[in-house]
Write a structure and sequence with these properties.
The protein folds into two domains: about 280 residues, Rossmann fold, CATH 3.40.50; about 100 residues, no CATH class. Strands 1, 2, 3, 4, 5, 6, 7, 8 and 9 form a nine-stranded mixed β-sheet that branches. The chain is an alpha/beta fold. The chain has 17 helices and nine strands.
Amino acid sequence: MAFTTDTYLPRPADAIIAKRLVFHIGGYDPMRPEVAHSRFVRELRRFKETWSASMASVSEPEIGVDEATWDVVTTGPNWRVHTHYRFVRWDDLIDAAGSQPMWRRLPFAFLAFLDFVWSGALWGYLRTNWRYAGFFLYPFLVVVIFAAAAWFTGASIGKMMESSSVGVAAGLAAFVVLLRWPGSALHLPLLFDDWIFSRHYVRRGDPILERRFDRIAREINVAARGRGADEIVIVGHSLGAVFAIDLLDRALSLDPALGRRNAPVVLLSIGSSILKIGLHRQALRFRAALERVASAPGVFWAEYQALIDVMNFYNIDPTRELGLTTEERPFVRGVRISQMLDPIAYRHIRRSFYRVHCQFISGNNRRASYDYFMLTCGPFRVERQVRSPDGAVSAIGPDGALLERSDEPPRANYSGTVGRE
């Protein structure tokens, strides 16, 4: 139940911040930093309108090999926040994989399929979230359908021409055409590359990413020792949640007391694919990193999940599901995307699995308990928003001002998710 104005308690002074450092790691999406910046600017405008902010400005991006960075200033009648936003890049790796021809990609894709089946991951998907199992099977079933259609086409033409060689050639041509046009429209190349990459990541990691994460982990430690931010937030969306765990584990190896001095550290896994990797029998390295991050006393971890999003795992604590021996648990929150958007906007996106998945990193046009830009650019600490049943909704007035008093939500390690969309 959302808090009302009658249930406000005095707001703790440290719930409000003025400076935030955000590291964002996206999923398997070849979004170049210029595009990511443009999208951020567009979606921040929605945040400004929805929350009646007085100003929301974004600097031009500075693009490097590891990251693209920009500064965000948001203000309300009685608050001002400066967010230094660091978009962690791996679009270069996705682009390199995407340049491969389909004939070279297909064998590795089906090898990845067999690997995730043999490793027990598919059974784990079926046990925990049958929708995610459907997401895993989808591209491979489409190729099987294409192959059947091509075989039927080739057999029909071969029979009509009374030539088996003509039939074989026609069938191969039909298969190539189906993969080239309908296959591209159905995002088969990207989905196959995703699973190929995931298999490699489970078994041996990626040397380019490892060097990149080592450098960024040092940045996090330097920032945590300084006083340049009131909080440091590492956001992992989709497969990026796996990388956020990996990155934080490296930072903790450099400083086990990370987050216990100066700036607190927050991990936000949103629409995450943690179990995509964790349920693979060979993901020993990742599960060990997950256990260390979950056990870190200086890191507050919040996991946001949505039932309608087929690309995440809903109503599940990943640490419990993987049987990790840690007393600390992520604070799990279920969100209803239908409450984040007006009915027209929601109807427009609900049939697009990808667009629904991306609402976790998009601007809302209705105030809701989960709002990516309120979490990363708003005046309240992330932990305070996560622990409050309605996020920041009851703490900001219609004019965008912080209310005189605010709720202090109960402290707990785990919160069950909510109902259906």
